[in-house]
Design brief:
The structure is a homodimer.
Chain A (H helix, E strand, L loop, with lengths): L10 E6 L3 E2 L5 E2 L5 H13 L4 E5 L3 H15 L1 H6 L1 H7 L2 E4 L2 H12 L4 E5 L7 E2 L1 H10 L4 E5 L7 H6 L2 E3 L13 H13 L6
Parallel strand pairs in A: 1-4, 1-8, 4-5, 6-8, 6-9, 7-9
Antiparallel strand pairs in A: 2-3
Chain lengths: 196, 196
C-alpha cells in the first residue's frame, strides 16, 4: 500500500436526489438535507476530493443550495467561519448524472470510472482494499456515487463500473446515514494507512 | 489484530453539550442538533456500542431529545422505520459526565477508561492502532467522549485517560462535523480489519 502522499487518482463524489427509490420502491426526487451539504463538503475537503456534485433537477432545490453556498462562501458567513468557506469550495449543483460526467470529462479529458455505493450486498461488488489499490495505482478519475432516500435505482447501478461493498461494523445492523457512510467510505478509500 | 468477533471491550460514547468552548474560548452549553442524535445513534448501533449518552443539563433540551426518541421508538415512527427504532435503543439523555460514569459503573462494576476526541494535535495523544489494540485486548469498558461547538474544555481533557489523535485525511484540512468524526472514529477503532 502506498502512502497518501503518492496518491494518484482524482476523485469526485456525487449525491443523487433523482432517480432515487422511496420506501415502496417507487422512483422519486428527494429533497435536499442541509447537513448533507455541510457534512459531505467538509469530509470531501478533508479527503481532497476534487468536486462534490449535488444532483437535483428541481430549480427550487438548486436555488436553496446555491443560497446556502453563497452565505458560507461570501460576506458574513465566510468571515465568521473560514473553514466552512474552504469546505464549500468543492460543492457544485447540477441537473443530472449526465452533467456530472460531462463536467468531469471537461476537467480531466478522460471518462471517470463510476463507483456506486449501496447498503445492500450486491453481486460483483468490489472490496475497499481492492478499490483503494486501484485508486492509488491508477491514473483515471473516479466518481463515487451516493444515494439519498431508499437508495440508488437499478438504472444508476447499471451504468456504474463498480459497486462498492456495504459498510459493516460489528454486526448485521448497517443503517448508517449517508453523511456517516460517505465519511467512512472516504476514510477507507482515501485516508492514510493508519493501521500499518 | 484480532477479528471483530473476538472483540472484548464494552464501548460507550458520550456527546457533550456542556462544558464546551465557543469560538471565543468561553465555556458554554450548546443546543442539541437533531441529526447528531440520528446519525450517531445509527453509527453507534452499527458498531455495537453499548450506550450513546447525550449530555445536556438543560431540562428543555432533555425534553426535546426524549420526545424525539419517543417518536421513533414508539407508535407511528417505530412502525414506519424499524431500524431507526433499533438505532435509538442505544440513546440515553443525562445531566453530566459524572452521571455517565456512574451509569457505566453500575452496568459494568468497573470504571470506564475515558477517551477524549479533539480536532487539534495534543501532546500525549494515542494513535488509532494503539487504542484499537487496547480495546481488542483489554476487558475494561471504554467511554469515547465527543464535543460539540468549538470542542471539549480543558477540564474534560484533564479527566480523560487518553486523548485520541485527530483525524487527518489527505491534507491539513480536518474540519469534520462531529457526525462524520464519530462515524470515522468508530469505524477505525471498532470496525472489521477490511485492509488485511
Amino acid at each position: 500500500m502506498k502512502k497518501t502522499d503518492d496518491f494518484a487518482a482524482n476523485v469526485y463524489i456525487a449525491l443523487l436526489h433523482y432517480p432515487i427509490y422511496n420506501k415502496l420502491g417507487e422512483k422519486i426526487t428527494t429533497t435536499v438535507t442541509n447537513l448533507d451539504l455541510h457534512d459531505i463538503s467538509r469530509a470531501g475537503k478533508t479527503y481532497q476530493i476534487k468536486k462534490y456534485f449535488v444532483v437535483n433537477h428541481l430549480k427550487s432545490q438548486q436555488g436553496l443550495i446555491k443560497r446556502m453556498k453563497k452565505y458560507w462562501t461570501g460576506g458574513y458567513g465566510a468571515s465568521y467561519n473560514k473553514n466552512r468557506h474552504q469546505a464549500f469550495s468543492v460543492l457544485s449543483v447540477v441537473d443530472s448524472m449526465q452533467q456530472v460526467k460531462e463536467q468531469i470529462y471537461q476537467e480531466e479529458k478522460s471518462e471517470p470510472l463510476l463507483v456506486a455505493t449501496d447498503a445492500s450486498s450486491l453481486p460483483n461488488s468490489i472490496s475497499y482494499q481492492d478499490l483503494r489499490n486501484k485508486m492509488f495505482e491508477g491514473d483515471k478519475p473516479y466518481l463515487i456515487v451516493f444515494g439519498t432516500g431508499w437508495g440508488l435505482t437499478e438504472e444508476t447501478l447499471d451504468i456504474c463500473d463498480y459497486i462498492l461493498e456495504p459498510i459493516y461494523g460489528r454486526g448485521d445492523f448497517n443503517h448508517l446515514s449517508v453523511r456517516s457512510a460517505a465519511s467512512i467510505i472516504l476514510d477507507r478509500l482515501l485516508g492514510p494507512d493508519w493501521w500499518s
